């Protein structure tokens, strides 16, 4: 993991963000044949996480590539 040199500011913002992430509405329905269920899709979940992060000037990103052993 790569941490900012200012991790004393980033980590508290991260903790506050976790507390602000709200419930994501289960607005999608899946039919499994014998039963159906509602779920929140990844796009809706990610939108809520990004909204909460933006409140504390944090961003969500994914690095390209992989780590080698």
Structure description:
The protein has 69 residues and is of the alpha+beta class. The chain has a domain at 7-54. The chain contains 2 helices and 2 strands. The chain has helices spanning 7-20, 42-54, and strands at residues 28-31, 36-39. It has a two-stranded antiparallel ribbon with strand order 1-2. Strand 1 and strand 2 form a beta hairpin. The mean pLDDT is 86.
Spatial sequence of strands, sheet with the most strands: 1-2
- Separation of the first and last Cα atoms: 14 Å
Radius of gyration: 17 Å
Number of strands: 2
Please bin the fraction of helical residues.
25-40%
Assess the beta-strand content as a share of residues: 5-15%
**Alpha-beta content class:** alpha+beta
Overall pLDDT level: 86
Number of DSSP helical runs: 2
Biggest sheet overview: 2 strands, antiparallel
Write the layout of secondary structure elements.
Elements: H1 7-20, E1 28-31, E2 36-39, H2 42-54
Antiparallel strand pairs: 1-2
Comma- or semicolon-separated keywords:
single chain; 69 residues; alpha+beta; two-stranded antiparallel ribbon; 12% strand; elongated
Short description:
The protein is α+β, with helices and mostly antiparallel strands and about 70 residues long. It is built from two helices and two strands. The chain has helices at about 5-20, 40-55; strands spanning about 30, 35-40.
């Amino acid at each position: 993991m790569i941490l900012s040199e200012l991790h004393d500011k980033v980590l508290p913002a991260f903790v506050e963000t976790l507390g602000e992430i709200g419930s994501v509405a289960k607005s999608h329905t899946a039919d499994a044949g014998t039963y159906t269920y509602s779920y929140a899709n990844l796009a809706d979940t990610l939108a809520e996480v990004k909204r909460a992060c933006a409140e504390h000037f944090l961003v969500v990103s994914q690095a390209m590539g992989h780590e080698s052993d």
